[in-house]
Every structure is written in structure tokens, then in C-alpha cells.
From TrEMBL:
Any GO MF annotation of the entry: transcription cis-regulatory region binding
Protein name (database record): LacI family transcriptional regulator
Keywords for this protein: DNA-binding, Transcription, Transcription regulation
Transmembrane region(s): none
Keyword DNA-binding: yes
């Protein structure tokens, strides 16, 4: 015989309160004493009560679900963003539907359409496409994340402070004696590439250094993209020690593979600095020195901003989150040696 599903009446009886009080306590309503709320929550857990989200949604006009569309779930950085968003949503009993656009505008559009059909309360999106008319037309609250979000100045968004991060990385390279790093960056179609290079140029100009001689090599934001770019660097004539600043950690780890493939060593022959702070960078040999973006914090903060949008308290501005340096073993210290230039 099937066991009867516990109801709000069972919770109320166990907590010694009325049905309406139990319902308001579980819904986070106001004018409930903390002791009463605690007693109701304990009773709900004891009887195994789970709210009927469909019924709650019909009464409140909300589904209790949010959407998240990120460009690459296989990239550990975006997985960290998703985890941060999921954890923050779970704290208030909200579920998160996660989609990966694979940097494809058509997939992004399909995912957004699916989220609207699912009647999510709002969505967090790293935009691939420049067209966000569908979101406006259907009246779905949303918050943008990532570098691409800066294209939409009138929309609430959350992302890393790239200028601060690049400055942090370049200052660290200079302190280590690396005056002219090779820059391995993403494709020309990505705004993240432009932001990275703009930050490099600003850093050079502020220090009265000409950025023009810096070697810039494009590649995909993947292990293979970093490997191929590093092979291009090593195929060029160069003198002395080579230093590389890669635009993400996946590319940096791919560059490490190329260095070993050519029979060279990191950091003895080639120094490599990454960007993202993905966990796997701690397990490379040597460990990858990197500028870590606050992936989980970005996800959590985006959910908080989305709650504000849903409640009609929009921020309509960019939240810049600071990055930090993780110093491991992939950079040689040349600060006491004669200055070397890459040619």
C-alpha cells in the first residue's frame, strides 16, 4: 500500500500551530516569531513534508525555478559559476535549470525559448548573440554575466574586473623580471579578447612602455587552442627565456603541453601565467600560476541580482568582482638577471 504523502496539516499538528501559520512560516512570511518558524521547519523535516511547488506557483504566480545559460559547461570556470548560482538559489529553496550554449547563438536562442516555456521566474545569461529582444518581448527578468554583458549598459550584469585582473598579472610578471610577455588570447570575434588587450595596453601606457612590440597570438579558449598557439610561439625566432600570459587557464595548460612536446621545460625555458583559477591548475606540473576569477561568487551574486530584478528592485548596472593571484611554480624569477626580450 502506498504511503500517504505528508501535508501541511501534518506539519501544523506536529508543530502545534494552525495550518495558516505553518504555511506562512514555510513560505518565509513576515510576522512569524523565530521560535515558531523554527518549530515549523523542524516539524516539516520530521514528517518529511515537501511543498507542492506547482500549487504554490499557481497561487504566487512563480515557479520557484531560475534558468542559467552559460557558454561552455565543460570549462571548469563556467562549472564553478553554475555551482555558485545553484548553491545560492538552493539556500532559498529555488531550483536552477542549466543550459550550455556552446558559444552558438542559435543554441542560446533555443535555450531561452525553453526557459520561457518552463515559465522560470528569471534567467541568468552569458550572451553569445547581440540580440536580446526575445527576453524583452516576453517580459522575463534577467541578469547577464561574463565579458559579453558589457555590450548592454542598461542591463544588470555581474562579471570579473578584467582591468584589475590583467594589471595584477602584468605587475606580477614585471616583479619576476618578465618585461615583454607573449599574449595568447582568444578569437577576434570575442569581446573578452578585446577587453584583455585593452587592459594590457592601458597597463603599458600608464608605465610609459610601448605595447606595440608585444607578440599576440590568437587561439580558441581550449586546451588544443592553447597548445597550437604555443607551438606557433616556439616556431618563431626567440632569444633567451620566453614568457606567456594566456587569456584563460585551459589555454595555459595547453601551452604547457606544447612546451613539453618540444622537449622544453616550464619554468626553466618557458614561463606561463594563466587566467581563470580553475581547480585543475593546481595539479599540473609545475602548478600553474594564475589570476583567479571568483567563479562561484559571480554565480551567487548573479542570483542575488536576479532576485532583485524579480522583485522589481533592478540594479541596472555592472557589478565588477575583483580577481586574485594564485602563485604556484610556472613562472621563473628573472628579476636578478639581465633583461631578456622575446624576438
Amino acid at each position: 500500500m502506498r504511503k500517504r504523502r505528508p501535508t501541511i496539516i501534518d506539519v501544523a499538528d506536529r508543530a502545534g500551530v494552525s495550518k495558516s501559520t505553518a504555511a506562512r512560516a514555510l513560505a518565509g512570511g513576515e510576522n512569524i516569531l523565530p521560535e515558531t518558524r523554527g518549530r515549523v521547519l523542524t516539524a516539516a523535516q520530521a514528517v518529511g513534508y515537501e511543498p507542492n511547488h506547482l500549487a504554490v506557483g499557481m497561487r504566487s504566480g512563480r515557479s520557484g525555478m531560475l534558468g542559467l545559460v552559460i557558454p561552455d559547461i565543460a570549462n571548469p570556470f563556467w562549472a564553478e559559476v553554475a555551482r555558485g548560482a545553484q548553491d545560492r538559489a538552493a539556500e532559498v529553496g529555488v531550483s536552477l535549470l542549466v543550459f550550455s550554449s556552446d558559444w552558438d547563438p542559435q543554441k542560446e536562442e533555443n535555450h531561452l525559448r525553453a526557459l520561457r516555456r518552463a515559465r522560470v521566474d528569471g534567467a541568468i545569461v552569458n550572451p553569445v548573440s547581440d540580440t536580446l529582444d526575445d527576453l524583452d518581448r516576453f517580459g522575463l527578468p534577467f541578469v547577464l554575466i561574463g565579458s559579453s554583458a558589457e555590450r548592454f549598459a542598461d542591463v544588470s550584469s555581474v562579471g570579473s574586473n578584467i582591468t584589475q585582473a590583467v594589471t595584477l598579472g602584468l605587475d606580477h610578471l614585471v616583479a619576476k623580471g618578465h618585461q615583454a610577455p607573449v599574449l595568447i588570447v582568444g578569437p577576434k570575434s570575442r569581446l573578452a579578447r578585446t577587453r584583455f588587450l585593452n587592459a594590457v595596453n592601458r597597463h603599458c601606457i600608464e608605465r610609459d612602455v610601448d605595447p606595440a612590440p608585444l607578440l599576440i597570438v590568437d587561439g580558441e579558449y581550449t586546451l588544443e587552442g592553447g597548445r597550437e598557439a604555443m607551438l606557433q610561439v616556439l616556431d618563431r625566432p626567440h632569444f633567451g627565456h620566453v614568457c606567456v600570459f594566456a587569456a584563460n587557464d585551459m589555454m595555459a595548460i595547453g601551452a604547457m603541453l606544447a612546451v613539453r612536446e618540444r622537449g622544453l621545460s616550464c619554468p626553466e625555458d618557458v614561463s606561463i601565467l594563466g587566467f581563470d583559477g580553475i581547480p585543475s591548475g593546481a595539479f599540473t606540473f609545475p602548478g600553474l600560476t594564475t589570476i583567479a576569477k571568483p567563479g562561484r561568487d559571480i554565480g551567487a551574486r548573479a542570483v542575488e541580482s536576479l532576485f532583485d530584478e524579480i522583485e522589481g528592485r533592478p540594479e541596472h548596472g555592472r557589478v565588477y568582482m575583483p580577481c586574485r593571484l594564485i602563485d604556484r611554480g610556472s613562472l621563473a624569477d628573472l628579476s636578478r638577471e639581465p633583461r631578456q626580450m622575446v624576438g
